[in-house]
Design goal:
- The protein has two domains: 87 residues, Winged helix-like DNA-binding domain superfamily/Winged helix DNA-binding domain (Arc Repressor Mutant, subunit A, Orthogonal Bundle); 88 residues, Orthogonal Bundle (Arc Repressor Mutant, subunit A).
- Helix 7 packs across helix 8 and helix 9 crosses helix 10.
- The chain contains ten helices and eight strands.
- The strands form three sheets. The protein has a three-stranded antiparallel β-sheet. The chain has a three-stranded antiparallel β-sheet with strand order 6-8-7.
- The protein has 190 residues and is an alpha+beta fold.
- Helices cover 53% and strands 15% of the residues.
- Strand 7 and strand 8 form a beta hairpin.
Length: 190
């Protein structure tokens, strides 16, 4: 992950580029290599103080550098920044999170002593909770309805809703028992 100074540098560059006067100054410096405040001011129709202000912003963003001569401060573009790609300036995309922290926070919020306190209303949280409850079943193995109800009831009283929701989320499948009797359930292997 990028460090704080890299984030601040990128932010300073984009802020500096967000002004028409500063962009005009950069265009001149890119075309002419070097210039000084008074010359830039006369070309842009701005005061020397305004140009100095904008150059300080550009210098703080490391877009220009300055050297002193006897009478003038000479500014030039920092070509290294301009030759960098926009992607490198923005920074690398962080690796996608594996949702472990999110899952753990949902479990901590909705379970107490191994029992579900309440079924979440938010869909993503509800799915996390249902998958935790489904861990009581061996994937691919078939269970009669009474065994499913008993396993769910050990962790949450409204076993009918949980069973129905597991089917709706595709976590569990239900089929009729060919021999008659209770329906059969199985948790899908992921």
């Amino acid at each position: 992950m990028e460090n704080e100074s890299e984030k601040n540098q990128a932010l300073a560059v984009f802020k500096a580029l967000g002004d028409a006067s500063r962009l005009a100054i950069l265009r001149i410096l890119l075309a002419e290599e070097e210039s000084y405040v008074e010359l830039l001011a006369s070309r842009l129709g701005l005061t020397s103080a305004t140009v100095s202000f904008h150059l300080k912003k550009l210098e703080a963003a490391d877009l220009v550098s300055c050297r002193r001569t006897q009478f003038y401060r000479i500014y030039r573009v920092n070509r290294a920044v301009f030759s960098a790609s926009l992607e490198s300036l923005i920074g690398k995309t962080p690796a996608p999170d594996d949702d472990t922290k999110y899952r753990e926070s949902v479990i901590a919020a909705f379970f107490e002593n191994g029992r579900l306190k309440q079924l979440p209303t938010q869909r993503k949280k509800r799915e996390v909770v249902l998958r935790v409850l489904a861990e009581a079943f061996e994937p691919g193995r078939t269970y009669p309805e009474s065994a499913v109800d008993e396993a769910i009831r050990a962790r949450y009283d409204d076993y009918c809703t949980v069973r129905r929701e597991m089917i709706a989320f595709g976590i569990m499948v239900r089929r009729r028992n060919p021999a008659g009797g209770e329906d059969l359930y199985a948790v899908r292997a992921e």
